[in-house]
Design a protein that fits this description.
The complex is a heterodimer of chains A (655) and B (285). With 655 residues, chain A is an alpha/beta fold. Chain A is built from 26 helices and nine strands. Chain A has helices at residues 3-26, 43-50, 52-84, 89-104, 107-124, 133-158, 162-169, 174-203, 206-211, 219-224, 233-256, 287-308, 335-347, 361-369, 382-390, 467-478, 487-500, 511-517, 528-536, 568-578, 581-591, 598-601, 604-610, 612-618, 625-632, 639-653, and strands at 315-321, 352-358, 377-378, 424-437, 461-464, 504-508, 523-527, 544-547, 554-560. In chain A, helix 13 (335-347) links the parallel strand 1 and strand 2 (352-358). The radius of gyration of chain A is 28 Å and the shape is globular. The two termini of chain A are 48 Å apart. The relative contact order of chain A is 0.10. Chain B has one domain (64-284): MetI-like (MetI-like fold, Orthogonal Bundle). Helices cover 77% and strands 3% of the residues of chain B. In chain B, helix 3 (67-99) crosses helix 7, helix 8 packs across helix 9 and helix 9 (196-225) runs antiparallel to helix 12 (254-284). Classes of the chains: A alpha/beta (655), B mainly alpha (285).
Amino acid sequence: MKPAAKVYTALIMLFLFAPIAILLVFSFNSAKSLSVMQGFSLYWYRELFRDAETLSTVRNTLILALAASAVSTVMGTAAAVGIFRLRSRALRAACDTVTNIPMINPDIITGISLMLMFVFVGRLFGAATSLNFWTMLIAHITFCLPYVILQVLPKLQQMDSSLPEAAMDLGCTPFRAFLKVEIPEIMPGIVTGAIMAFTLSLDDFVISYFTAGNGFQTLPIRIYNMTKKTVTPKMYALSTIIFFTILALLIMTNLIDTGPGVERRSRRTDDVAAAPAPEAPGRPRSRGHIAAFIGAILAVFIIGILIVGRPKKPVLNVYNWGEYISDGSEDSFDAIQGFEDWYLENYGHEVELNYTTFASNEDMYAKISSGAVSYDVIVPSDYMVARMRSEGLLLPLDYENIPNAANIGESFRGLYYDPDDAYSVPYTFNFTGIIYDANQVDEADTGDWELLWNPKYRGRLLQFNNPRDAFGTAQYRLGLDVNSEDPASWRAALDALKQQQPLIKSYVMDEVYNMMESGEAAACVYYAGDYFIMADAQAPGVDLRFYAPENTNYFVDAFCIPTCCQNKELAEAFINYMLEYEPAVANAEYICYGCPNRLVYEDETYADDMGEDAMAILYPGLDAFHERYEQTAFRNLPPDVLNMINSLWEELKIN
Amino acid sequence: MKERDGLRLARRLALAPYGLWSLLFIVVPLGFVAYYAFTDNDFAFTTANIARFFTATSESDGVVTHTYLLIFWRSLKLAVISTLLCLLMGYPIAFILSRASARTQKILITLIMIPMWMNFLIRTYAWMTILQDTGILNSLLRALHLRPVHIIGTETAVIIGMVYDYFPYMILPIYSVMAKMDLKLEEAARDLGCDSFGVLRRVIFPLSLPGVISGITMVLIPSISTFYISQKLGNGKFYLIGDAIEGQYVANNLHFAAAIAFILMVILLIGMALMQRYANSRAAA
């Protein structure tokens, strides 16, 4: 290589590996931050191996990728062999076109198209759930198939067609000739196709996002759903492990591979026209090398599956916000494991809690109302409870099975969204407020919503990246009704948001943690409880503080049982357990939001753990809560108003 | 010879599972996209969804814009810029690779592929850490006493994210075509008096065109429809066509989401067909 070429190659490698280096380094962070490195520690690795839920999504991802690549490799190879011998031009053209569709269609369209079909067919047959592991597998096989075919076809074209003929002339049966002559000839293509299929399936997020159903969650979806709470260095630790596993595999297979560089034969130049072949080295690899690589991958993943695998039991499907339960991480109590143990102790048989997460109320509603999934317990926010109740999507609760509901404080009973408490048991409550860095913001500018419109902090303010909360800030500031059905009122709020837009650094959800902790932004609006998590991880030189403007949104997230529930008694047992002292305190301390459970907020240990300041912020006068809540909570709005809000939001975002 | 007829039949049968599969899970679902795009919530025929894409307007400071046309235009612009950058950066590296020793080729290709094995959401997150105003890049610049740069939340950040995530998809197809090129053609061109640039323009580039076309396809398609990169690196300020589809899906407007998807699909199919045609005509010439 010439020096210039060397420099250029080095620069490209720097570009490719810079982010990888970042995540390797930050996986050893001793703090819970992805932007401020505070010290070296293996803490997040320990955390990762304690996190049964994440490990099970890793297992799911591997199972899915293995199954999808195996099926698509076999079916794709067979198809390529068939296509190659097609005489009819029309048929051949049809096959080429169909094979190309998943490749030139954006994955979002492939995902939506399959989802629409599954949901439609599911409804037609009245199936309780139309999205599940199998639909995801079908989707993955579908988008992997073309890659396998396009790897195998060129190999068939390169093959000397007289080879199988010769074998048969020498007395081979046709099938034997196929196995002994053709298959080995096209093996490099098959293997490359299989590796590509596996890689694509492993990394796919978009198609999985649309076709994921009950209780079967893959790693990319879990990461995406961490958007209300924060993505922790735990995920970087996981990526680091994956990185070194692959590196080790590659080095290993290179050591095994001692074969010569294999022959180079003349080829037609058009054979890769449509093939986006990361057909690894230009000259075909030796077969031993490839087989060793595949074998090593399989071995590692099967071992991985065995380690994280768990036996099958009756399953309870819980659908909750990301990072919204004490799951044993960071030395907390594991409420998921706790439930399984508690159930075994009290009911005498084993149960498996399948815990999956969603990113927003709307996201969850879209899944449930499509009738495509069946969850046993969900945790919507108040206005979504009201909506689902009015649409008949919730089942009334049987309080005989939830005696611990008596622990719910008086202030949290009979709230507007469920006046008789027939359908829901409150889980958390909180409100939106303003978090600011005292080293950047003058105390004099704080106290109300004006801070978020203050031109002094131009380019350093953060706003919500979801319509209802963002509009809310403008409406509270202007003294408008957040539940208005009058378009003019919403338009006024939109104008305020447009006026604010030049000052806004970023519209955020989970990114808020990074930006506030690092001092990247001066002030943001977010949920009060999350302030404590940020303050814990703030960088030196950042001094985060919190206040709640006079008018602000109070919200409650509540346990409900949707009509798609498969095991209502088990679901009620789960809700009952979550109201017991130990899990309730653990959840409240983990989430840092207010807890409506008397056993928690009247508990001294809990108050000590949280600290006086936190208690004062989280529980500002419970007697007045009911009234305040009723005044400020978001209500469910009619569909046409929701559509209008959505359009106004798009109008803001395209500016 | 009977035996060989049987073989032919067996080969046809080998195609059957795939044929059935692609009919059921590729062709029919696209039919569903069209079906949803042209129906309302009660599944009655309507063209309102399609019309909404082309006619919906929004007003700001007295300027009226077509909401979705603008969103589409922006997505297209960012995707085209990213694709061109991938091509400009990727073509030389593919060339360098294809002319390197077998061992170097193997190592470099492996290095290029490794990042593809890391989850793309996490990779994008890592870019946030680098590009933030108080991020790694600016810390470096400050340490070198240079002026910090503001990248996060700008078009540049979104483009960097797209280029990074889809870069290998540009290199690999171009490289695989170049690696198979007959070096004798180059020598012949030189013998006939071509200078280096002439060789590149008249021999190497035309021969690598199939790889370039599939590289462009592999980068353009995902970058036009992404919704994660724009959310994370664009500070939520870039609302692209992928965001619009996802937004309508989450807002439970399945029919309008299908309509946007349908229109995007039709535009892309036409675009790709035209490009393929151009490539074929060049190849024929």
